[in-house]
Amino acid sequence: MSLVLDPAAQDLLFREARTANTFTDEPVTDEQVQAIYDLVKYGPTAFNQSPLRVVLVRTPEGRERLVKHMAEGNRPKTSTAPLVALLVADNEFHEELPALMPHFPQAKDAFFSERPVREQSAALNAGLQAAYFIIGVRAAGLAAGPMTGFDAAGIEKEFLDSDHKLLMAVNIGKPGEDAWFPRLPRLSYDEVVTTV
């Protein structure tokens, strides 16, 4: 069976998807970010909890505050990307559940009254949304450079409160010169899929 999605779209979203390491200086607009969010917000999460929060680092001051916490190898590209998005899990997502699940508002207290349960669920579901976000960046014709090489505690102290947990930083923009490292291998279907 073949895929329904147009082959060019398959290529754009997946086969040609790479982590960009250099970017042009063309800005990423608020309208582009809004369009990305308006597309990816429909990706499913458990209980429609939607725990992803996004902090956009645009200003020179914000960039300086961020770059000092990045791993050495991630500093140059983070310094020069037109936009950096910090993708964050909101551990208090349950406060929004009555609005997000109007047919079952008691889910807030029935399932998520305990902080450890919320933290685990927020990490998983915000992780799903982070993947949707990266695909949305690609759908907007932009390149994404997701990174986890950083001092998470330092970034959280600098930008977040105790109810939010950093998942990743994503450089966003048009790819620059020599943006791509060589394509690395992938596991085959038989190495990944088991039937029982």
Topology:
Layout: H1 7-15, H2 30-40, E1 52-57, H3 60-67, H4 75-80, E2 83-90, H5 97-100, H6 107-112, H7 115-139, E3 143-147, H8 152-159, E4 164-173, H9 189-192
Antiparallel strand pairs: 1-2, 2-4, 3-4
Report on this model:
- It is a single chain.
- The protein has 196 residues and is α+β, with helices and mostly antiparallel strands.
- The model has no long low-confidence stretch (mean pLDDT 96).
- Helix content is 41%, strand content 15%.
- It has nine helices and four strands, in the order ααβααβαααβαβα.
- Helix 2 crosses helix 7 (115-139).
- The protein is globular, with a radius of gyration of 18 Å.
- It has a four-stranded antiparallel sheet with strand order 1-2-4-3.
- The two termini are 21 Å apart.
Number of strands: 4
As a percent range, the share of helical residues equals 40-55%
Unreliable parts:
none
Q: Beta fraction of the residues?
A: 5-15%
Query: Helical stretch count?
Result: 9
Assembly type: single chain
Helix and strand content put the structural class at alpha+beta
First-last Cα distance? 21 Å
Gyration radius over CA: 18 Å
Order of helices and strands: HHEHHEHHHEHEH
What general form does the structure show? globular
Largest sheet: number of strands, sense, barrel closure = 4 strands, antiparallel
| Spatial strand arrangement across the major sheet | 1-2-4-3
